Amino acid sequence: MYIQQKTSKIISISHSLCFIFYNFANIDFKTINNKKISSHLRHIFKTPDYRPIMKYKKHITKALAGLFLSITIAELIIFWVHYEEAKYYIHHEIRPLLEEAMRKDISEKMKKEYFYFPQHENDPKKKNLGKYEKRTYISQDTTFTYQSKIVDWETALLRSSHCYLQVTNKLHPQDVKVIFDSLATRKKIIATKSAIGIISTFYKEQNEWAGDTTSMSIDYRTSIDKLGDFENISYLVYLDYSFGTIWKLMPKIALYILLLLQVLCGITLIGWLIKRAKERRKEIVKLKNGNYKIDSIIFNPDTMKLTNEEKELVLPAQQNQLLLLFLQSEDHKVSKDTIMDTFWAKNYSDSRTKMTTAIDRLRTSLKGIGSERIIYTQKGSDYYELI
């Protein structure tokens, strides 16, 4: 007696473990042919439907596809925002970088020159600041008078330095370009190509460029104008940068996280679709000709035949009608009262026994044609289910 109790307890535990392993491995109970084991496990866990996920196959597919699409859209939006921010950063920094390069170039060159420029004559506190005054330029072969705008001392010094270097042929764009490229690299703005030009259009005409502009795809251009005193000196910069330049400037943490989620969601979606494709081969489907496809078996209710690739089985009329009743019912569930009323309404007293016998015979026929489907009912339940 003791041994029997222990054996019964071990079997009960084994059955429970089997259910857990089957559940996590997503193995359908259709593969379990032992009706006692199946019934015992369902009784332990008190779940009449062990396939709740399968009821929501379409919803799961839509949810996974929607999640994948949402992640993709979010990824594209964030990418576009960061892309535009990086472009704005480049365009916002170019002019200050050009101005800094120009000032450094002027400063280095003027250190080697003797250039007297009295500060007191250009005091920023002068009341006529911003007005124009007449000035005269005198060289060995030329003398001319021009109107000059009175500016602060530092601006006046910069303008005069430009004019001096330009007249003495010491103002060259290649020197500015070297400084500009170095400053841009520090800011992580690595241009595919850059070109800088210095143009003057009054006393000494100059249009000199550093960098080939003919083969450039110009992504951005800017200029600094009216830098000279009597000369109209302008600096121009053309910039050609690649996507790699923008990518290096873009923040990428959010994009990497979304990309990882997108890959995981995509793999999950693909796996789910593959699984669904396999499951569709094992579904009950009503065909256009009125027949039913039960997994790999074709059921013709008119000829009462079950047919697979290897053999054919003709069902008796009662089994044919009973199987059709299951197939036409929602979720392939039929209440016991419905079965008894359909077949044994006039002899209701003995109908339960006859129903059990008819169900057992249909089970045998399905097994005989090679179907893994079973007709299941839980103890105390009021319906049968074709699963």
Automatic annotation (TrEMBL):
<dbReference type="InterPro" id="IPR001867">
    <property type="entry name" value="OmpR/PhoB-type_DNA-bd"/>
</dbReference>
<feature type="transmembrane region" description="Helical">
    <location>
        <begin position="253"/>
        <end position="274"/>
    </location>
</feature>
<keyword id="KW-0238">DNA-binding</keyword>
<feature type="transmembrane region" description="Helical">
    <location>
        <begin position="63"/>
        <end position="83"/>
    </location>
</feature>
<dbReference type="GO" id="GO:0006355">
    <property type="term" value="P:regulation of DNA-templated transcription"/>
</dbReference>
<dbReference type="GO" id="GO:0000160">
    <property type="term" value="P:phosphorelay signal transduction system"/>
</dbReference>
<dbReference type="GO" id="GO:0003677">
    <property type="term" value="F:DNA binding"/>
</dbReference>
<keyword id="KW-1133">Transmembrane helix</keyword>
<keyword id="KW-0812">Transmembrane</keyword>
<dbReference type="InterPro" id="IPR016032">
    <property type="entry name" value="Sig_transdc_resp-reg_C-effctor"/>
</dbReference>
<feature type="domain" description="OmpR/PhoB-type">
    <location>
        <begin position="289"/>
        <end position="387"/>
    </location>
</feature>
<feature type="DNA-binding region" description="OmpR/PhoB-type">
    <location>
        <begin position="289"/>
        <end position="387"/>
    </location>
</feature>
<keyword id="KW-0472">Membrane</keyword>
<dbReference type="Pfam" id="PF00486">
    <property type="entry name" value="Trans_reg_C"/>
</dbReference>
<protein>
    <recommendedName>
        <fullName>OmpR/PhoB-type domain-containing protein</fullName>
    </recommendedName>
</protein>
<dbReference type="InterPro" id="IPR036388">
    <property type="entry name" value="WH-like_DNA-bd_sf"/>
</dbReference>
